[in-house]
Each structure stands twice: as structure tokens, then as C-alpha cells.
Specification:
Elements (H helix, E strand, L loop, with lengths): L8 H16 L8 H46 L5 E2 L1 H10 L10 E5 H15 L3 E4 L12 E5 L3 E2 L14 E10 L3 H22 L11 H13 L2 H18 L4 E3 L11 E3 H4 L3 E5 L2 E5 L3 H9 L21 E2 L12 E3 L12 E3 L1
Parallel strand pairs: 2-6
Antiparallel strand pairs: 1-2, 3-4, 4-6, 5-11, 6-7, 7-8, 9-10, 12-13
Amino acid sequence: MSRTEKLNTKELTDIAVSTITEKLSCESCQDDSAAMSKEIQLALEEKLSACIKEKETLRKLQLTELEILKEVDRICRKHNLRYYIVGGTLIGAVRHKGFIPWDDDIDISMPREDFDKLCSLASAELGDGYFFQTQKSEKGCYFYYGKVRKEGTYFGEEKFEHLPLHKGIFIDVFPLDYIPDNTILQKIIFRGFSCLGGFICSKEKTTEFLYKNMSLPFILSFRFLQCLLPKKFLLWLRSGLGKLSNKLSKKNLLASLSGFHGYPNEIAPAQWWGDGCDIEFEGYTFRAPSEYHTLLTHMFGDYMQLPPEEERVNHSVDSSKIIFSGCTPQDYAPKIKRKHSHRYFPAEYDTENI
């Protein structure tokens, strides 16, 4: 297979059209057809090379994440722990028998009981090749969920580069908590998680723009509380809210309280998850929710329909910040310092190099 065959016809056409259009608008080349032809040729070669390199990096990243998933699957099957591939990973398994072509991550969910067991087993079972990053395993980690990271690698997400955290290539592991049947309680719990998450991320300077469509009284109250409340107290409060959710439930509904789809999409009957079933993904067999079609339809609607091109996005990490081997703990040290706790406007954080 030639390198250009790694790009489909539409991608090749788009690159050619954009390059030619750009060069035709260049005044310096308009009076010299030979110069214009050479400019177009060089620009096309440069753009094709960059696009091919990006695709090669994405595929290598996907295969590294697949390697991590295989290790998690091995441990879970060995110890009879329930887990399920979810989100875009599950859509990819159903629709593409593997990764969604533009996707660059793997997500799995685990019932709280199994998630906690994995936490206790991880250090011994994963060995030296991987690290299960949670609040318990790494000082400074504030996630409610976990990340299984591959040692010796680097995935440079800008929002974490100022923190002293492990930054290896990873897959996300989301705990599933029971939640009350009462919709008012559900809304209170999800709203509480959202607010506490905003406080915690603001303190860590990793939050997105907080004040969109918010009133001035809310902004002032948030700023006051964010400064007043210690991070340890906020983490304790969030953990307690999760425990309270489980305690108040009748064990009918499960929810990913730290999931990205929020209320009510992250809530589903426990029977939809069940004990799970086998599903093919990238030529291997992994676990999916027992009623995955019903669950995916609940969360995404017609998930078999490809989204518009402008919505086919991923983490958008610069390929130069993805390293597949040779990293040491020193490489995970903070590289920048952020000057503010969060953004007042939808713009980049002010940063300075360390």
C-alpha cells in the first residue's frame, strides 16, 4: 500500500482543492505560471506528508491504547470483574468493528464494586508496564474516575501540562454508581457533582470556560467559595456525594456521575448493563453492556449514522506531544505555570514556562 492510499479520495481532493485555491490567491505567483505550478506541487507534497504523518500517529496511538485495554481485559477476566467498553469505543465496535476512524481514546465503565477491586489489584497485576492513576494511587490526582496509563509514554494534553501528574498514553475507566429512582434527587446529585467538579478543576486550573451564560451573582459567589473551600474538603464532599447516591438508591439505576454526557443521558437501568456480553473490537473480544443497542440509543440517538464532518473531533493533541517510548518520570514534571485559577473569558490561559 502506497502512503497516499492511506488517505481516502475525499481527503485527497480536499487537500488538493484547498492548496490550489490558496496558491491561486497568491499575488506573487499570478503572473508566473511556472512558479505557480512549482509552488502548488511543493505545497501539495508538504500537506500530504503532514496529513499522512498525522494519520500514522493516530493509528499508532490507537494500537497503544488497544494494548492497554487488552491488559485490563486480562485482569478483569482473571478476577471476574465486570467492565464494559462504552461511548465512542462501543459505537466503534458496533459500527466499525474497531475504532471510529478519527477517534483517539478508549473508554470503559465498571460497576463501583468492581472498580474498587481493580484499584486494589492494579499495582500487583499491572506490574511495571502500566499505572492505574486514581486519587489513591497518585498524590495530586483529583479525578473521580481512573486512567490506566502505559509507562514510558507521553500524551501531552495542554490542560494537564502544569500539573505534576503521570502523563502517559491512557484509557479512561469510569465507575458506575447506583442512583436514586427519584428524578429530583437525581438532578440534585448531578448538579452537585457538576458544581464540585467546577470548584475542583478551578483550583487545579484545568477547567474550561466557567462563566458562559452565568449571571454576575453566580460568578461572584463561585469565586468566593472557590477561594474559601480547601481542595481536600471538596474531594471529600464529592466522594461523599457518590456514596450517598449509592445509599439512597434502590439498585435499579446506574449512572456514570463523572461521565461527559451529564443528566439524564448518563443514567440507565442496571439491567441494560447486566453481566455484559462479548463484542468484537479490532479483531479481539472485549465486554460490552448486555443491552448495548438500547443503551447507545438512549445516550446518542441514531448512533449508526455518521456525524457531520465538523463534529468528527478527538483530543486534538499536537502529534509532537505524543511519545511512544523512552519517557521517564522526570518527563511528567510540570512544563508551564498557569497564572489564574480559571478563565473569565473563552480564551487561552495565561501561562509561563518553568
